[in-house]
Amino acid sequence: MYLYDLGKPQEEDCSDSYLRHLVGGAPLSVAKIEIEKGVATTKHKHTSDERIVVVKGMLVFSFSTTDVAVGPNQMLLIPSQMEHSSIAVEDTVALDIRTRPSKRQVPASG
């Protein structure tokens, strides 16, 4: 049994306006992310499925054929190897859940 404290995560600063706090490790990676309004990620993909749960704010994810807005209490499943980018349209707090930990892309702007 393990108890993880979301208030005391291991911090991974991607930039001053995009913070990723890892709270769980293998075989499941759970990270709390805090993103300032206007910050975007570059196009990228992951080797495992990614689930994004928005707690506060809103993220818009761009895929090859569509954009998807994800707001509070919503979860987006991004299958492995699916290329995507995102932008925070509001200051946002979310959970990033993956089956295999991987490095996060450094935001392209912000």
Question: What does it look like?
Answer:
The structure is a single chain. The protein is mainly β and 110 residues long. It has a single domain, classed as Sandwich (Jelly Rolls), CATH 2.60.120.10. Helix content is 0%, strand content 51%. The chain has no helices and eleven strands. The strands form three sheets. It has a six-stranded antiparallel sheet with strand order 1-2-3-10-5-8, with no helix packed on it. The C terminus is likely disordered.
Q: What is the radius of gyration?
A: 13 Å
> How confident is the prediction overall: mean pLDDT?
83
Tally of separate domains = 1
Strand percentage: over 45%
Overall, the morphology is globular
Quick one: CATH superfamily?
A: Jelly Rolls
CATH fold field value: Jelly Rolls
* Main beta-sheet annotation: 6 strands, antiparallel
**Which CATH class?**
Mainly Beta
| Overall SS class | mainly beta
